[in-house]
Amino acid sequence: MTGELFRRLRAASGAIWPAYTRHDFVLRLARGDLPEAAFRRYLVQDYLFLLHFARAWGLAIYKSETLAEMRRAQALVAATLEVEIGLHIDYCRGWGLSEAAMAHEPEALETIAYTRFVLDRGLAGDRLDLEVALAPCVVGYAEIAAERMADPATRRDGNPYREWLDMYAGAEYQSLAREAASALDEQFARRGGEGRFAALAGAFATATRLEADFWTMGLAAAR
Amino acid sequence: MTGELFRRLRAASGAIWPAYTRHDFVLRLARGDLPEAAFRRYLVQDYLFLLHFARAWGLAIYKSETLAEMRRAQALVAATLEVEIGLHIDYCRGWGLSEAAMAHEPEALETIAYTRFVLDRGLAGDRLDLEVALAPCVVGYAEIAAERMADPATRRDGNPYREWLDMYAGAEYQSLAREAASALDEQFARRGGEGRFAALAGAFATATRLEADFWTMGLAAAR
Amino acid sequence: MTGELFRRLRAASGAIWPAYTRHDFVLRLARGDLPEAAFRRYLVQDYLFLLHFARAWGLAIYKSETLAEMRRAQALVAATLEVEIGLHIDYCRGWGLSEAAMAHEPEALETIAYTRFVLDRGLAGDRLDLEVALAPCVVGYAEIAAERMADPATRRDGNPYREWLDMYAGAEYQSLAREAASALDEQFARRGGEGRFAALAGAFATATRLEADFWTMGLAAAR
Amino acid sequence: MTGELFRRLRAASGAIWPAYTRHDFVLRLARGDLPEAAFRRYLVQDYLFLLHFARAWGLAIYKSETLAEMRRAQALVAATLEVEIGLHIDYCRGWGLSEAAMAHEPEALETIAYTRFVLDRGLAGDRLDLEVALAPCVVGYAEIAAERMADPATRRDGNPYREWLDMYAGAEYQSLAREAASALDEQFARRGGEGRFAALAGAFATATRLEADFWTMGLAAAR
């Protein structure tokens, strides 16, 4: 069954995982009562995040050992630069945020911490280290959206954040997340071994903590 | 006159610079009324910082183009791993902090943000990018300590933080900082040009902001 | 006028440049009397080269400072992985070389030397260092093919290597090479300065020498 | 018993290993009838090699996960920059080669290939990948010298290369090589697993092949 390494990493992170996936930001977004200022802050920083996300997958191309690995990373860079950033810009425009304004916004401490932590893991270690540090984001967002869509407390009609939930709960993103989890298994078989698990779990937990801090940063804008 | 690039970078960072060098943490440390909890928090995170500082200079060895450049970076790694970390551990012991306890403390968001920002600048760019991102720390600490020691408001007798000020205001550290500033000039002449200034100033300002956040993190422990 | 930095680098490399662009391998290919064994050896190693070429542009994505820079590097990775490698495989099949056979061939000393030299320049330096090390290949191939197609000594009818010349002399590749040369100028303005020229010229000359060695490796297969 | 991974890698490289350790260059050096021009060529390129060897261990500092790992890498950089390069320069002076002359000599194709291959393995992979690529050099030289000193065909008296054999067969270097082999075991336990063996063995074999090419380059100077 695929996703085995991801499940072990998630289990090893203990309470850190739900503190991220069931963060107040997420629960309020699902209920539709997240302050708009919090969401706008999140959207702007998520735009800045995407630039480094594309850099991380560019690095993954460099770190590939097979043509298949290279092509998967290249598809993710292309999806980010050609599709996601565009969709994000369109979506943000609907929230009154222009691309120029977002590009000039300084990166928040939390954005810097998560993105550069990921890049350093990827450069100091190998591609498995890089993908493990990215997993709380790539795989976690799929879990967050699916879990919230399955929750009766989630407001479906008239929820201003419904589009966000639909995107990450949708078949396309869920499938991308499953592929990312499978890739972790494949790499752990090829480059891992039990001896590596502790260090990978440590990095996964730190990355998850930094993702939770990202939500907190959003909420802080509404205080 | 040496230190020209550093002075230009500092000037370009505007109010961000004194927000770091005259941060409340620093002023209270100099007056001797910084809460001990704030200083202890700082010491623990500074220990974790030093490990990444040594990694950054290791990276500088890799990125060197001349034997002289390599030797300067190697001397800084050696000083960090063989002297500074030892002194830091001794000093912290005096504040009731054991090395084992510090090594097990999780890195604060602010520690992760500054250290990984520096490493990413160094890996994405060249050695000048790396050293510019390190300058607010390496050169800035010398300025902070010298400025405070020259300030009549600074308490010299019975100040529990006097040793910290003496170390960074001392001849040895001041000389190390001057060499670091000179190295910036030399590299800017050899690898720079006016076209690079804007990007270097942007990275310097971000690094300075992250250093100020590091002080804020210390203070937060005393709230 | 664009291509200024490339022209200066080429001029600074002196006799090293024509030793590459007018190498016996090239002249005989144009005359149509290059031994087939030499061309086959070249084709196989060029396939292995392309994998590292894609890695180099993946690294360029990571090293990008703007969205535009990222997109240009991403387009080159995509072109390499989605188009060029496929065309190369088709073309090689016409020469009796299967993809599986090429993928199992050991990399020649000359292939390792050039590809890893480029990657190290890119990692030790910045994106300009990376693109300068790639320029003898990217821009040089366009010059080689154009120069040979303009040479009356070149055999056009019945030349078994005509397709190779047509591809690199064609409008599409010539345009890609011009863009690469323009990108050098843009980066030299933004990240360079006269102080950098000597080191860039040194790396360009070494990369050119390694490209000439690549032709020599091809010829050696026919001895 | 230590050195297990090294022994497995050596066994997996098959005939590639003795083609390096019992290369004609080595056998003639031991018999004392290696042409001096071959040895001089080797010495000059070995000087250029050492600069990249120091860079590789600088990179290892950056890639360290523990203070102990950092200290071992730092000790090797220090030994290279503060001791080995100096000894090498002194030794070369005895052979009529000045440091200035060596520093201006262009790097041979073989020097570039091996050094940059190692650095790329280290950057694309993790520290284990880096140390495996360095092992044919670090551990191999100890084996080469010990094997030759145990061989009755080796000329001990009046052999102009005796000092070279004594240095690498000496207790100090043999101990350094044993530590390097132990470090491989420790890292394979901590970061490896059987799944990684095939790729590590592939890189080890390529690095060994490139080391043999380095001897061949030396011999070629005497043709």
Short summary:
Four copies of one chain form a homotetramer. The first copy, chain A, has 223 residues and is mainly α.
Word description of this protein:
The structure is a homotetramer of 223-residue chains. The first copy, chain A, has 223 residues and is mainly α. The termini of chain A are far apart. In chain A, helix 1 crosses helix 11 and helix 4 packs parallel to helix 7. The first copy, chain A, has helices at 4-12, 16-21, 24-31, 36-62, 67-94, 99-104, 109-124, 127-149, 162-169, 171-191, 194-220. The B-D interface holds B 51, 54-62, 64, 67, 70-71, 73-74, 77-78, 81-82, 85, 119 and D 51, 54-62, 64, 67, 70-71, 73-74, 77-78, 81-82, 85, 119.
Number of helices of chain A: 11
* Fraction of helical residues of chain A: over 70%
Average pLDDT for all residues of chain A: 95
What structural class do you assign from the helix and strand content of chain A? mainly alpha
Strand segment count of chain A: 0
Low-confidence stretches of chain A: none
The major beta sheet of chain A can be summarized as: none
Shape of chain A: globular
Instruction: Identify the most extensive interface between protein chains.
Output: A-C, 22 and 22 residues
Strand content of chain A: under 5%
Instruction: List the quaternary state of the chains.
Output: homotetramer
Secondary-structure element series of chain A: HHHHHHHHHHH
Termini separation of chain A comes to 44 Å
Question: Roughly how many Å is the radius of gyration of chain A?
Answer: 17 Å
